[in-house]
Amino acid sequence: xxxxxxxxxxxxxxxxxxxxxxxxxxxxxxxxxxxxxxxxxxxxxxxxxxxxxxxxxxxxxxxxxxxxxxxxxxxxxxxxxxxxxxxxxxxxxxxxxxxxxxxxxxxxxxxxxxxxxxxxxxxxxxxxxxxxxxxxxxxxxxxxxxxxxxxxxxxxxxxxxxxxxxxxxxxxxxxxxxxxxxxxxxxxxxxxxxxxxxxxxxxxxxxxxxxxxxxxxxxxxxxxxxxxxxxxxxxxxxxxxxxxxxxxxxxxxxxxxxxxxx
Length: 262
Prior knowledge:
Layout: E1 7-11, E2 17-22, E3 27-30, E4 35-38, E5 42-48, H1 57-70, E6 76-82, E7 88-93, E8 98-104, E9 111-114, E10 119-123, E11 127-132, H2 136-141, E12 147-152, E13 156-162, E14 165-170, E15 175-179, E16 183-187, E17 191-196, H3 200-205, E18 211-216, E19 219-224, H4 228-238, H5 251-259
């Protein structure tokens, strides 16, 4: 194996975190801001690029960093290495309610394609790059964007998603249509395209958007019940407009606004 062999344990239900166990000199790579806690003896270092192989020199690192910019991520990632004696632990938390999905890339064909903000952490040696959709329709109308992340290697990687997560194993030629925002990840052999919702009334008044993802097997697909974009839009819609006061939706709140001249 080219990747560090790390052990892990996932804690929690809806607000999960993953605890990674590192032997001496083992390293895990994570997105900036994902750290929850770490034990003494773990050395934290900021690296330039995607945390994969260091071959290719400066130009290779610049290229990998530039690709990460396309996904909206930072130019830098953080490594956590056990520099102490014995086993040490470092933990990473999911940024919003949902689940953390452990993925052993050695059993998934060495490559998984996921949403551009789904990656949480991985064993050192896993390459975190970008995956361009081959079809322009998927790019412009994919909901989560033209560019997705790809995780390559033969080690462990952890991705996170919102709500409840379900894995679907598609047979050759089997088709699954899902809301574009609900797609979390898929193996490399799954064919991904965007399909227009048929019927003008359904498209305009169905409340599900104009497009959905069409996934064709063979391969595995991970689906989330609550995309972060959907959660954020509901929270934003429920926020008081114009700097309203607390309890604005209650009778007392309405009376307060009346007396306040609003």
